[in-house]
């Protein structure tokens, strides 16, 4: 299958980078095609704004969904958005690889979602193309993420609450909203206090997880 | 009191802009001091990266919390971060004004959170300064937000789920995490299909809400 890894971490020696690299090698070894959108390395523009629309359809009233619909229809979205859309179209599986910051995605990844999963490309609300009818149906998506906190902090009843609950805006209201099937999330907790042996064990665990996909 | 409005919408004729403007006038009329961080107008840098740290304490291993702690301690964070921190210190009440995109904040606002609410400034995990002990305790924060969907879509059992649940990563894991007290969220639903009368009614409702704060 074709796999697109959307990777968001500012540091190439991070555990997130190692997880991304491990996924590339494991998936390629298994005969899959892999592309990586390394958002930091690409200096991906995080902020959805009027520059995203090369020929605004309405200069008096800027409506994000309206401009996105027109931009998709007319091929007048900014080139970096279109390039990402091509990769998404190509992919059978998307992997979102990122550290949990503030119980959510880093801004650069949120910007990728805001800009790339445009109305008319990923969903079409006017035509009811969402959830099971979402325009990206047939694809799967996996969240692979790391947290500094121990798992008990991010559990039901823990101080932060259940992390799976916090990431619902990504796995349900984004991935499933666009019609994609969610693969169970891969979590690594306690990042930053692990020694090399523990890091390697987590990379091995991810490798096994990916081999069973 | 001193009020800081952190405002994130790309279009000055949006309902979010009108809500922000209404808050400024109502709060000033009531004798409060108001500052606005208009993130789009400021072209606020959304992406936390190594350029945020003018004198990295560790060039071999980039740790976000470690660099933030050192940057706060030594006054070596990027000037735009320090300017926002000064406003936060000054404020008794923070108002987050933004449209809900993907059941969450726009990337530019997430970037403000990632960069400004730094370790050592807003929380200090090593010293247990979080939640009730958070470094921003004594302040309050209000989420004022708009959604295109009708409220029943964003309710328990609705297709998107309870919006208050999705925003928990902001009101609990961000605002309360830093020690601030949460003021009940102000929601406007059905944005984009309202006529002028309905828009005005929502602005009046916000005005009344703010007067009772």
TrEMBL record, chains A, B:
Q: Where is the Flavodoxin-like fold domain?
A: 1-210
Q: Which GO terms describe its molecular function?
A: NAD(P)H dehydrogenase (quinone) activity
Q: Please indicate which superkingdom the organism of origin belongs to.
A: Archaea
Give Gene Ontology CC terms: cytosol
The cross-references to InterPro entries, in alphabetical order and at most eight, read:
Flavodoxin_fold, Flavoprotein-like_sf, NAD(P)H_dehydrogenase_qn
Q: What Pfam families does the record point to?
A: Flavodoxin_2
Key words, A-Z: Oxidoreductase
**ATP-binding among the record's keywords?**
no
Member of which family?
A: Belongs to the NAD(P)H dehydrogenase (quinone) family.
Q: What is this protein called?
A: NAD(P)H-dependent oxidoreductase
Originating species: Methanogenium marinum
């Amino acid at each position: 299958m074709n796999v697109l890894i959307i990777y968001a971490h500012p540091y190439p020696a991070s555990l997130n980078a190692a997880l991304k690299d491990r996924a590339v090698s494991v998936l390629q070894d298994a005969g899959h095609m892999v592309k990586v959108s390394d958002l930091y390395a690409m200096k991906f523009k995080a902020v959805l704004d009027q520059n995203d629309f090369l020929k605004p359809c309405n200069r008096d009233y800027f409506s994000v969904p309206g401009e996105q619909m027109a931009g998709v229809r007319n091929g007048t979205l900014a080139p970096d958005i279109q390039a990402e859309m091509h990769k998404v179209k190509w992919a059978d599986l998307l992997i979102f690889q990122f550290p949990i910051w503030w119980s959510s995605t880093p801004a650069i990844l949120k910007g990728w979602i805001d800009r790339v999963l445009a109305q008319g490309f990923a969903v079409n609300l006017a035509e009811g193309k969402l959830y099971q009818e979402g325009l990206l149906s047939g694809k799967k998506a996996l969240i692979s993420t790391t947290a500094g906190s121990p798992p008990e902090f991010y559990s039901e009843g823990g101080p932060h609450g259940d992390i799976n609950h916090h990431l619902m805006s990504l796995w349900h209201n984004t991935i499933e909203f666009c019609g994609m099937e969610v693969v169970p999330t891969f979590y690594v907790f306690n990042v930053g206090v692990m020694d090399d042996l523990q890091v390697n064990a987590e990379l091995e665990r991810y490798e096994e997880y990916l081999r069973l996909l």
